[in-house]
Write a structure and sequence with these properties.
11 helices; alpha+beta; 31% helix
């Protein structure tokens, strides 16, 4: 079983709750309703009960000369923003992206996807919009949608929840080792925005003094909700170049923010040239009085995918893929750590 790192805090059932606490209080992810430590403990308990499998971002099954890889994830509470705006056209892209990006981080090519849509009552309009997003996401990921399930469960679901499972294939010598080495360079690629993690915190902050339908206070979007709904970037186009350049391991910067880099090993990851955060992050931080550390432990902050590679190959990989050499891997005593923008995570 792979570590849980996916779409925000899982089931998006229920209405959008109002702010908690005084507006002047510094907001944290735990205050908003998601305790990362408790979530990791629960995941560890589940893994302990069912047994650890091979693989990290994706579960790997030996099928002879290749690995069959599986990843499962959902959209999370981003669905509540879609519900507020009545626009579900992009959440299918998020559902695809959160799954295929985990496979890419493992060095696996996504080949097929099945979705699971749970609703309190059937609705043709949002079902069509969800389907259009799933189809677009599959096109961007260059894989097939092979089916799915729609469950009507009014006693369990309030609204809807969307998740899916992605299957991938890789030759055994093609998967990434997954372990960075001291001296490696770190190449990063820009995110499209918040993606589909940390939305519970982002929503709580954004709705302290705004409605989702309010005009967006920064350029590029008509409303606050539209900025939060910007779909997750899909990184499958990086797979072949990363293999060609001998990438040792990659990190999908999802739940847990920049601490995801420590999944590449107990090293010190020094980031000195990350991509600038998009304006939506400044808006969320200001609206929620969120600390710099909490922002980097929750969100991608502008960089959605990172790979560890020999420094001799780093510039070539970055140039070929519109990436950037963002830092380096150093030796570290004890647990892994990340140094970024004056913070030690």
């Amino acid at each position: 079983m792979t570590e849980g790192d996916g779409g925000d805090d899982g089931n998006a059932s229920g209405g959008d709750e109002g702010p908690t606490g005084d507006d002047d209080d510094e907001l944290t992810y735990a205050d908003a309703g998601v305790d990362i430590g408790a979530s990791e403990a629960a995941t560890a308990a589940l893994i302990g009960a069912v047994g650890e499998g091979e693989g990290d971002y994706a579960g790997l099954l030996d099928i002879g000369d290749r690995y069959l890889a599986l990843a499962t994830d959902g959209v999370g509470t981003k669905l509540l923003v879609a519900e507020a705006l009545g626009d579900y056209s992009t959440v299918g892209i998020d559902c695809i992206a959160m799954n295929v990006n985990d496979l890419v981080a493992a060095g696996v090519r996504p080949v097929a996807f099945v979705d699971y849509l749970a609703v309190d009552e059937p609705d043709e309009l949002f079902a069509e919009q969800v389907g259009e997003g799933l189809a677009r996401g599959a096109e961007l990921a260059d894989m097939e949608l092979v089916g799915g399930e729609t469950a009507v469960m009014p006693d369990v679901i309030s609204g809807l929840d969307l998740a899916g499972t992605c299957a991938g294939l890789a030759a055994k010598d093609a998967v990434f080792d997954g372990a960075a080495e001291p001296g490696d360079a770190l190449v990063g690629w820009e995110s499209s925005g918040i993606h589909s993690n940390g939305l519970t915190l982002a929503r709580e902050a954004a709705t302290r003094e705004h409605a989702y339908t309010d005009p967006c206070p920064f350029e590029g979007y008509e409303t606050v909700g539209e900025a939060l709904l910007e779909p997750t970037r899909i990184y499958t186009d990086l797979l072949d170049p990363m293999r060609d350049h001998g990438v040792r391991g990659a990190a999908h910067v999802t739940g847990g923010g920049w601490t995801n880099l420590t999944r590449l090993g107990a090293n010190r990851y020094v980031i000195d040239d990350a991509f600038d955060p998009q304006p939506v992050f400044e808006f969320v931080q200001s609206a929620g009085s969120v600390s710099d550390e909490e922002m980097h432990r929750t969100f991608n902050m502008g960089t959605g995918f990172v790979a560890a590679v020999d420094p001799d190959a780093a510039e070539s990989l970055a140039d070929e893929t519109d990436g950037r050499v963002i830092g380096r891997v150093e030796e570290n005593e004890g647990d892994g750590s990340v140094a970024i923008r004056g913070l030690e995570l």
